[in-house]
């Protein structure tokens, strides 16, 4: 059994002060949790400060995006080495908001995955279908091609450092979550695809987590599904009590 991973994606929210208050509350609420890996992804501007506050807590840090070059004339970008330097262990790559608003493609996702792995940062790769794609019955086709694109050229030795986040676009920030059965169907087919591409052994430790309106009242039934290994939480990760309850999901 792999350790479940619960990650909070703060998106473009929180000042340094607000982030610090949230982390201080969370530290108390999730003290001693060791059966779940807890990751928080604050905005770039807060990472350095929060790195001190999470010491001796179950939390580790993620960034919300990264560029694929190490350094150079790329105004506005942040490299994997810089993320490593500031204390990040993970990075979210290919979130649907980046695909939608910032022209992220499967090719750029793939480059970012490679660059992050090279720097020792673990990618949380987001994939997911739009509502139109789901209604046209294209969900599995869509997420499979996104997954193939993201992992293009990634060898089996690096696979265990990658987390896959299935996030149906229609469930993000809408309050409309996928049912546990809908999510499980996709997770199961992603797992089958990974088996096909890599064989059983390297895939055993790969976590496939679910994101899209995860809340305290739906986390338990989502985590009860055999192929759901954690959650990527947006809105609810900004409320300490809600996020702590999600981290402390119960097996139902
Ligand atoms: P949400 O966001 O939980 O607010 O739906 C999830 C995400 O975008 O990762």
Description:
The protein has 12 helices and 8 strands. It is 43% helix and 16% strand. The radius of gyration is 17 Å and the shape is globular. The protein has an 8-stranded parallel beta barrel, surrounded by 6 helices. By secondary structure, it is an alpha/beta fold. It has one domain (5-233): TIM Barrel (Alpha-Beta Barrel). Helix 7 (139-151) crosses helix 9. The structure holds 2-phosphoglycolic acid. The site of 2-phosphoglycolic acid has 13 residues, from strand 8.
* Tally of separate helices: 12
Q: Give the CATH H-level superfamily.
A: Aldolase class I
Bound molecules: 2-phosphoglycolic acid
SS-derived structural category: alpha/beta
Strand percentage lies at 15-25%
CATH topology, which one?
A: TIM Barrel
Largest sheet: 8 strands, parallel, barrel
Average of per-residue pLDDT values? 96
| Model regions low in confidence, pLDDT < 50 over at least 5 residues | none
CATH architecture: Alpha-Beta Barrel
Order of helices and strands: EHEHEHEHHEHHHEHHEHEH
CATH first level: which class?
A: Alpha Beta
* CA-atom Rg in angstroms: 17 Å
Q: What is the general shape?
A: globular
| Helicity, as a percent range | 40-55%
End-to-end span in angstroms?
Answer: 17 Å
Tally the structural domains. Answer: 1
Number of strands: 8
Instruction: Provide the spatial order of strands within the biggest beta sheet.
Output: 1-2-3-4-5-6-7-8
Topology:
Elements: E1 5-9, H1 16-29, E2 37-41, H2 44-53, E3 59-63, H3 80-86, E4 88-93, H4 96-101, H5 106-119, E5 122-127, H6 131-135, H7 139-151, H8 156-159, E6 163-166, H9 180-198, H10 200-203, E7 207-211, H11 219-223, E8 230-233, H12 240-247
Parallel strand pairs: 1-2, 1-8, 2-3, 3-4, 4-5, 5-6, 6-7, 7-8
